[in-house]
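In keeping with the milestone schedule agreed at the kick-off meeting, the structural modelling team has produced records for the first pair of proteins. Each record is given below as a sequence line and a structure-token line. The laboratory manager (R.T.) confirmed that both were archived under the project's standard naming scheme.
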Amino acid sequence: MPLSLPDDTTRQLVESIQVYFRDERDEEIGELRASLLLEFILDEIGPSVYNQALRDAQAHLRRTVNDLDVTLGQTELAHSAAVRTAQNRRR
């Protein structure tokens, strides 16, 4: 599944690529070259980043669900259980 971004985000990323080339490489590149580079990055690198983000989100959700088990795993009706235990000891 190819990654797609909103038009506004794409424009901002193209501008960012142009700024990078200008500031870091002392090279001016046009909008077309920056767009093609962004397309390559999204096609080639994007799926790896996307998949890792999904794995990270899944791990976070698993930790959260495990924490819920601890939080929700409290003794229910503790007072009633203590009363029954005391009554059983007297017998």
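The second protein of the pair:
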Amino acid sequence: IELGAGFNPVLTGRENVYVNGSVLGFSKDEIDRKLDEIIAFAELNEFIDAPVQSYSSGMRVRLGFAIAAQMEPDILIIDEVLAVGDMGFRSKCYAKLTELIEKSAVIFVSHQMYFVNRLCSSAILLKSGQKICIGSPAKTIAEYNKLFSHESKVVSGDQETFVQNLILLDQNKRVTDTFGWCDSLNAELDLFVSRKYEEVALSVTFMGMDGATVAQCHSSFNEFTVHNTYTRNRVRLEIDRLNLNPGAYYFNLIVYDKTNNRQLLWLYATKKFEVTGEFCGGAALQYSGRWHVGDGGQQ
């Protein structure tokens, strides 16, 4: 489960390929046949004869994964170590895992839900060593997301700009925190701004349960600005189609001064809502489209 476990730091990368391969149960002849492929996959050609103690942690992981993958194991257990390395190498590792799944049993341990959904045929959610859920990746990812909650808070502000009475409404203008995929979403709020600011603009982002921003609603900057009344400004946002993958999300709000684009207020995780429906895939933002097939130039 720990790639490169047992590497001798004094030996070179090439020597450690033989040592690690023998630990995995392979003969010298088998390693001889695979050696060039291992070195090429790890992309360590110019460093393969340097001692492993001079390698970075990412280089050790590269070599460890290359050994394990090229040996075509019957069972491969991969931990979160693939978070190490550049994007190109990670992509190559996941492509290799896809190949290995066809002929090996792969146990993939990760907090990256996109890759769990992409690679796994079933998933188990563990918490403190106890099984919470077992089933399809979609079902298990939904349960994983429920474990996380974020406290609503003001990340930044000038103490004179604040929001009250924020509500979310469905297409029938009913207050709700549950929406269907591609339903419309409306938000209404009371905005209070210091009389120091003549015009302000607003921006809304949607955040997943892991704290990552998954989508942003176009800023009001170019469409309209709030001409400050110095009392209550009632503001409404209308989104025609909520193209978020079914799951739980947070509504974040940013208010800024239009004159100098200075942020006046950032409300983090201010409203939690859920999108229902059938899980569509790994990406949070999902677009609906129309497919056509042509025959002899005719659509």
